[in-house]
Design goal:
Blueprint lengths: L5 E7 L2 E8 L8 H8 L9 E6 L9 H9 L4 E7 L9 H14 L8 E5 L2 E11 L3 E10 L2 E2 L5 E4 L7 E7 L3 E6 L20 E3 L7 E11 L4 E10 L3 E3 L3 H15 L3 E6 L2 E7 L4 E5 L2 E7 L4
Parallel strand pairs: 2-3, 4-5, 11-13, 14-16
Antiparallel strand pairs: 1-2, 1-19, 3-4, 5-6, 6-7, 7-18, 8-10, 9-10, 9-12, 10-11, 13-14, 14-15, 16-17, 17-18
């Protein structure tokens, strides 16, 4: 087994992960090990696995990527894998979970911003403490640049659900299609009634597999320029999750394009998070939780 004896279960607004610290680069996981640990019946259970390590110990990174992380003053790297064992470019909720873990392990300062390397660039996480309505151990993550495609350019359907919606492509370092439902373009059920067990279908087909978000606008306060929305998500590699950080950011970007409002409190099944969008970047604010330390038995 290429895993350490002890791992930690974490979550960030219900998006849950198995995480561990690998200071020496000796514990790069295999796809089979990831699938085992993330299995909710035969393993620990999680939407993904995160190894916190040095960038030079991540085998899929090129020399140029390693130098870019180091040039961004990030000593530590979030080696994130989906529950099915596949590599993932980025996980916004995972950045908060692994930073809280890094603080406990003494490799991140609990009061200062933490620079974290990811496959989508260096992310900066600033601890905010306890903040209503977002919860405890709140971090604001600078998620960086984003790109948006043509509004409503894709048709989104869900096998087993009647109707369709129009979706907009957003590149957050990983691919998303965001469908604002219950509007003039949508004939899908209300967001709470969607059956997201089955993977949504996006047409025309996007070259790489994508995460798909389904969103309802709940309220817009024009005095404060803050909107409220509800979102559900089907993540590639793991199915429906209680929360998706990059998906929340993609949602805020699409809602801004549709309404002109740049600040959103978005409720997912795991809680409420804040998304703040500018032309240059997007920031995500939400909580993180350490659940348990687990000793793995050696067969």
């Amino acid at each position: 087994m290429s895993l350490p004896q002890r791992v930690t279960k974490t979550h960030a607004t219900g998006n849950d992960f198995v995480v561990y610290l690998d200071k020496t680069g000796d514990f790069e996981p295999t796809a089979d090990e990831i699938r085992f640990l993330c299995d909710r019946h035969f393993g620990i259970g999680g939407d993904g696995l995160i190894r916190l390590t040095k960038p030079e110990f991540v085998s899929d990174l090129s020399d140029e990527q390693i130098m870019a992380v180091q040039a961004g003053d990030a000593e530590w790297f979030m080696d994130y894998r989906n529950a099915d064992g596949s590599l993932a470019e980025m996980c916004g909720n995972g950045t908060r979970a692994i930073t809280l873990f890094a603080q406990r392990e003494g490799v991140a300062d609990s009061t200062e911003p933490f620079r974290l390397g990811t496959r989508a660039g260096v992310k900066i996480l600033t601890p905010r403490g306890n903040v209503k309505p977002y919860g405890a151990n709140v971090f604001q993550v600078e998620m960086g640049e984003w790109k948006i495609g043509e509004t409503d350019a894709y048709e989104v359907t869900i096998p087993g659900n009647d109707g369709s919606a129009r979706g907009t492509f957003v590149d957050m370092g990983n691919p998303h299609v965001v469908a604002v439902i219950e509007d003039a373009f949508s004939t899908l059920p209300v967001v709470e009634d969607l059956d997201l067990v089955t993977k949504p279908v996006v047409n025309p087909t996007i070259e790489s597999d994508q995460n798909v978000e389904f969103v309802r606008i709940d309220d817009i306060d024009h005095n404060t320029a803050v909107g409220e929305a509800t979102m559900r998500v089907n993540e590639r590699g793991c199915g429906e999750t209680l929360s998706c950080g990059t998906g929340l950011c993609a949602t805020g970007i699409v809602l801004r394009a549709k309404t002109g409002i740049s600040h959103w409190d978005i409720t997912v099944r795991g809680g409420t998070l804040r998304v703040d969008v500018t032309d240059e970047d997007v920031k995500l604010t939400g909580s993180a939780t350490l659940v348990a330390d687990i000793d793995l038995l050696r067969s």
